[in-house]
Write a structure and sequence with these properties.
By secondary structure, the protein is an all-alpha fold. The protein has a domain at 14-100. Helix content is 58%, strand content 0%. It is built from 6 helices and no strands. It has helices at 16-37, 42-68, 74-97, 102-112, 116-119, 131-139. α2 (42-68) packs antiparallel against α3. It starts with 15 loop residues before the first helix and ends in a 29-residue tail after the last helix.
């Protein structure tokens, strides 16, 4: 009987690079959990393990497609491709359970929310009109008698230079 002499959880030599990538991904994921939550709970550790198992499955399936593509039938290629897709969906589902984006989402929600002052239009002060009312009043102005409607009318008050200087 032939033994492979593999340690529990290890993969054959051709897949060492894949497993190195999975271990690196695991370290980054655990560090992210520590940064956000301050600790890694038992449930989070098992979820990380599930995520890494799915990532390893993807890596193995990609390795099969990369190295054995000529030896596979079209049905086998589709099966391996489907396995990659299924493993990625499982990984993403487990990743969502960790709620790593919870703080980012609340930050973006706060930034996207309209400011409190913009929700209701401000009440005009007594005796003052709003900009909309001012535009409506300007459109109803008529030229005084004896003035052509096409002739510009100066509706401004006297200029600063036209005013008398105050005496001391």
């Amino acid at each position: 009987m032939l033994r492979a002499n593999l340690k529990l959880g290890s993969y054959p030599k051709p897949l060492e690079r894949t497993m190195r990538n999975v271990r690196s991904y695991r370290r980054r994921l655990e560090q992210e959990l520590l940064d956000i939550h301050g600790r890694v709970s038992l449930v989070q550790a098992h979820t990380v393990d599930e995520i890494c198992a799915a990532e390893a499955h993807c890596g193995v399936a990609r390795w099969i497609l990369r190295t054995k593509l000529q030896d596979l039938s079209p049905i086998e290629i589709l099966t391996v491709s489907r396995d990659i897709h299924t493993a990625k969906r499982a990984r993403n589902k487990a990743l969502a359970q960790l709620q790593l984006d919870q703080t980012d989402a609340s930050l973006w929600d706060a930034l996207d929310a309209p400011p409190a002052a913009a929700t209701a239009p401000p009440e005009p002060e007594h005796g003052k009109s709003t900009a909309k009312e001012s535009r409506a009043a300007e459109s109803t102005l008529r030229a005084p008698d004896g003035v052509s409607p096409n002739e510009p009318i100066d509706v401004r008050g006297p200029l600063e230079t036209d005013r008398p200087e105050p005496t001391a």
